Amino acid sequence: MSWMNSDPSKLLQQCFLIGMIGIILCIVPLANMALAVFDPQKLVFLNGFGLLAQLFALSIAVYVLRMRKIPEEPKNKAKSMIIVLGAALVFFMLQ
Q1: Beta carbons within 10 angstroms of residue 3's beta carbon
Q2: Where would you find the membrane-spanning parts of this chain (predicted)?
Q3: How crowded is residue 85: how many other Cβ atoms within 10 Å of its Cβ?
Q4: Which residues contact 16 (CB under 8 A, 6 or more apart)?
Q5: What is the pLDDT of residue 1?
Q6: I need a labelling partner for 2 at 20 to 30 A (CA). Which of 8, 24, 31, 34 fits?
C-alpha cells in the first residue's frame, strides 16, 4: 500500500492511534516516578519510544496537511492534530 494513494481520513486515524500510543508510552515513566512501582532506570527507554511514535504521528499529520485536492475537513483535523502532538512533544521533551 502506498502512502501517496491513501485516504486522508484513514491516515488521520492512523496518526491519532500512533500519537496516543506515543503519549501513553511517555506517561508510563512519569507515573512510575510518582508511584515508585518499578525501578525508574528500567522504564526510561519507554520515553524514547514514545517520542519516536509522536514524531512519526506528527509527520503523518503534516503529510496530510500538505496533500493537494482534499476537502477542508481533513485539513482542519490535521491542523488540530499537529497542534496537539506538537504541544505533547514539547512537554515530554522538557520533562
Answers
A1: 8
A2: 12-38, 44-65, 77-94
A3: 26
A4: 57, 81
A5: 61
A6: 24
Domain ranges of the chain: 8-94
> Cβ(92)–Cβ(47) under 8 Å?
yes
User: Mean pLDDT, 10 residues at a time, over the chain (95 residues)?
Assistant: 82 96 96 88 91 97 92 95 96 92
d(CA 86, CA 91): 9
Helices (H), the chain: 8-35, 44-66, 72-94
Among 36, 42, 52, which Cα is nearest to 92's? Answer: 52
> Taking Cα atoms as reference points, which of 52, 1, 3, 47 lies closest to residue 26?
47
